[in-house]
Backbone:
């Protein structure tokens, strides 16, 4: 969203017009930005046989999934339901990486029946998979290297508190199961969930991971997960994808030479692709001053965007209705009966009741984490594509709240 001739627009579509047409609150996604981010990654890793598996859970709207497929992305799904959405969006089974965590074993079987690439993340299910499928169906193993690619390299020894992946300290147990059932391990996966701020740190982690990968003889790909960091406010450290792409491609190519086969390099970005493309547009319900704070109430809250409360995430907020008014300090809160502060002590151009505010960087983990708490309805979703605003999800109605409820006679 850019300020053009005194008003905010997305691809030259006026943001206030979008609100007038579709109502508020509304999630608005800029398709051009989504496609651009995808292109950045492709360019950054152009030296490798790259497969981008978009992490669907970040923003699962089927039109977004279709857009990404059209531009060459594959997809990573974490539930069988997401897998079905991906199939519905047109992804072939072979393009879908299925990464459930602590889900029922039967979901893996369903994934195999659908033809997905299975990413197995625990020893009991690997054993059951081996017993059932032997070498008749390939799989990928999700490993936990106990390494955090944070500001500095931290290697936790002995155990990890993370529920994700199979510990690299359990390689002997993995090998025993794999050998016993002749399991066809074609991929290895890591996704620590931590964000990459420095390529060099990530490369160190990759080197450790390569030493594990040498144990597996039939690999076709290595999946490095995500961790691509985006800016939520000025001055945030971000992942320099070009630096990372260059360095990881180099290290990966060297590994492939030693390994004796060219492998595919997979990544699973979610946030990087859709975060900045999304804005949550909300309406000011009230400007309420106490002796110490001026609150702006809006017709949204933690039911639509839980990141500020759940992760202490910072989302910048702008007044779309009054872009050039004098700046004042406000605390922006939702209409939910909880303390749902969206942004505290923010400098925002003067706000009056009815003004439209934009909550920025709301594309990832916004709508996909939304709920009906307080019996509020989930917002509409709009995609701006080719200079046109298109509805991609209807606003919910009271009927949606009642849909699965069974009224008993009392
Ligand atoms: C959530 C998730 C991702 C994406 O993480 P981002 O921080 O949104 O890029 C990738 N891989 C797996 C397995 C995930 O669960």
Residues:
């Amino acid at each position: 969203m850019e300020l053009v001739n005194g008003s905010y627009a997305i691809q030259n579509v006026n943001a206030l017009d979008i609100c007038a047409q579709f109502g508020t609150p509304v999630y608005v996604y800029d398709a051009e930005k989504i496609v651009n981010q995808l292109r950045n990654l492709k360019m950054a890793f152009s030296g490798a046989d790259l497969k981008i598996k978009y992490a669907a859970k970040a923003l699962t709207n089927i039109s977004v999934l279709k857009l990404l497929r059209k531009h060459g992305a594959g997809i990573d799904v974490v539930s069988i339901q997401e897998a079905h959405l991906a199939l519905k969006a047109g992804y072939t089974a072979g393009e879908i990486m299925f990464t459930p965590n602590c889900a029922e074993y039967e979901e893996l079987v369903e994934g195999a029946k659908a033809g997905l690439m299975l990413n197995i993340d625990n020893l009991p299910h690997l054993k059951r998979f081996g017993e059932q499928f032997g070498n008749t169906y390939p799989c990928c193993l999700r490993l936990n290297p106990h390494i955090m690619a944070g500001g500095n390299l931290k290697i936790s020894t002995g155990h990890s508190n993370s529920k994700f992946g199979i510990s690299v300290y359990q390689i002997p147990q993995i090998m025993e199961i794999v050998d016993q059932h002749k399991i066809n391990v074609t991929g290895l996966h890591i996704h620590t969930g931590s964000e990459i701020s420095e390529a060099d740190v990530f490369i160190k982690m990759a080197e450790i991971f390569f030493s594990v990968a040498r144990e597996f003889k039939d690999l076709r790909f290595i999946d490095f997960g995500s961790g691509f960091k985006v800016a939520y406010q000025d001055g945030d450290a971000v992942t320099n994808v070009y630096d990372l792409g260059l360095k990881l491609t180099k290290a990966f190519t060297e590994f492939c030479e030693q390994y004796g086969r060219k492998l595919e390099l997979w990544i699973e970005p979610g946030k990087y692709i859709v975060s900045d493309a999304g804005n949550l547009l909300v309406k000011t319900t009230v400007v309420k001053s106490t002796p110490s704070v001026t609150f702006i109430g809006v017709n949204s809250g933690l039911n639509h965007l839980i990141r500020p409360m759940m992760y202490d995430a910072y989302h910048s907020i702008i007044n779309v209705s009054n872009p050039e008014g004098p700046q004042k300090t406000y605390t922006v809160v939702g209409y939910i009966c909880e303390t749902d502060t969206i942004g505290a002590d923010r400098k925002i151009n003067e706000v009056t009741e009815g003004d439209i505010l934009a909550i920025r960087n709301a594309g990832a983990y916004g709508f996909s984490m939304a709920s009906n708490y307080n019996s509020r309805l989930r917002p509409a979703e709009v995609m701006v594509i080719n200079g046109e605003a298109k509805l991609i999800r209807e606003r919910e109605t009271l009927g949606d709240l009642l849909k699965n409820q069974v009224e008993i006679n009392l």
Observations:
- Confidence is low (pLDDT under 50) at residues 149-159.
- The pocket of pyridoxal-5'-phosphate is lined by residues 55, 57-58, 76, 78, 99, 191, 225-226, 228, 268-272, 364 (CB under 6 Å).
- The chain has two domains: 2-23+278-362+364-402, 32-274.
- The first strand starts at residue 2 and ends at 4.
